[in-house]
Amino acid sequence: MSTHTYPLNAILGDYARAGAGLVLTGTPLFLPEPLSPWVFVVFMGLFIVFLFYGIRATLRHIRRISVNEHGISTTPIAGRELKWTDLERVKLSYYSTRRDNSGGWLQLNLTDGHASMNIESNINGFPEIAGKAARVATGKNLPLDAATIENFSILGISLESIPAHGGQS
Q: What angle do CA 101, 123, 13 make, to 5 degrees?
């Protein structure tokens, strides 16, 4: 079994953006002079958005993903378990941050029919997690779209070279 986490340096930017947003939108809310109701509602709405963004970053930072021969699970909050035998869909998407596609991240989506699990590429050991998902998908003959196949190849995972093991590898 292997356990994977999102390292602090992968989440630090999210913490900084959330903190800056909370300071910039929260400061006017606590000024001695009252804001007009409309301005107050706008700043309060933005404050809540940045608060949830910070909570989401914290939850990702404390999240633990465990992978073994039977499945993949997350802990501690809103823990999920997905058994490899129940896997129905694997999708590996690339999200670019630049027009020339030079920056961005991959997101692995695993679905078992009841729930789905998203794992971003900045987690420790992402290639191993993606490789396991690719082996299971190949072993179960799950249909993969062209973008997913291309994104696996970006990680150096050739789906043709993966031996089929009935999803139990």
A: 70
